[in-house]
Amino acid sequence: MGNKNDELRKKRNKPQRYYDYGLLAVIIFLCCFGLIMVYSSSSYAAQIKTGDSLFYLKKQGFALILGIICMFLVSKIDYHKFAKLAVLAYILAIVLMILVNFTPLGIEYNGKKRWFGFGSTSLFQAAEAVKVALILSLASLVNKFSKKIDMWKVQLLIFAIQAPLIYLVLDNNLSSGIILFGIVFLVLFVASRKKARFIIAVAAVAAAAVFITVFSDKIIELHILKEYQLERILVWKNPTAYALEGGHQVLQGLYAIGSGGLFGKGLGESMQKLGFVPEAQNDMIFSIICEELGLFGAICVILLFLFMIWRFVVIANNAPDLFGAMLVVGIMSHIALQVILNIAVVTNTIPNTGITLPFISYGGTSVVFLMMEMGAALSVSNSIKYER
């Protein structure tokens, strides 16, 4: 009888594993909503181009199924094993970007070599794989230098290690390069107890942005920036003056947002997706959400992302160790930056940088690697223990 009581007592006192079903629920909801919006925004264009209105939906659906499988497989792996792969992931990411930038394995699309593939067959967008590798290596480095992480020399060293990877991505993909830089900055900001230097850095970047905006004419004369970068700044400042060039997409997106009103025209009733907004299912899908579901729908989408960010914060705060916490912070930084920048681009708050809306925009590579990141976050959550 005593043995049975002891066994029952041990079972009651045994730490129970936590699993963040709230995060899982919002991931599944956003992915399903993304499929609906991909079909709504792309059916007309798909019918015209391919004769199949479900063309983009089928491709996105297949990628999502693959992504969900990857997410659940990764979530079942002890996240500590990811730390052992950090160096290998970093090296493979460097090799991948070199192959994409400087060999025939890099496939050019819209004037940019961003895809890895063979011949005319593109396999995946290289920058999406690099984001995962950078988050892994960054979390590993912060964990390794945890006792000296407040020293500015150590922070510069960590950034210097990631700099070659960021540079290789920046060469052909400005938006992804900005996101990679932002992930490094935010992870170091969270890891460090000395915040003043980061605040000064943000202020300096803001001042530089204001300077570029005010003195853009002088910058153009000095040829400091590349031609396409200057064009984006000019379009951002006055899209109506460049309506036949880069300003067309921006203006049509703003028309879509404005015409949606409070509750929108109704799901599937967008006019701007009928050839007015180029490739509406990609970077500009948020404008179609605003047109069809209105301000109410747009706010609901933003609230869902905020809920996701909150779940990441909860997991990071309760992670068993620093590596797990920094891994989740890196993933959170990626999602937060991409959402903020996408919405800022669509509303013309910042110049167009070609950033997709996570889980919602069309893009098989993006959704697969995002789901792998979600699997890693769920793996950390599953390692959290609590007493009954």
Structural summary, described in words:
It is built from 15 helices and 5 strands. The protein is mostly helical. The protein has a 3-stranded antiparallel sheet with strand order 2-3-4. Helix 8 crosses helix 14 and helix 13 packs antiparallel against helix 14. The mean pLDDT is 86.
Percentage of β-strand residues: 5-15%
Q: How are helices and strands ordered from N to C?
A: HEHHHHEEEHHHHHHHHHHE
Task: Give the overall pLDDT as a whole number.
Answer: 86
Outline type:
globular
Helix content: 55-70%
The protein's oligomeric status is: single chain
Structural class of the secondary elements? mainly alpha
> Unreliable runs, pLDDT <50, ≥5 residues?
none
Number of helices, counting only DSSP H or I runs of 4 residues or more: 15
Radius of gyration: 22 Å
Cα-to-Cα separation, first versus last residue:
23 Å
| Main sheet makeup | 3 strands, antiparallel
Q: How many beta strands in the DSSP annotation? A: 5
Strand order of the largest sheet: 2-3-4
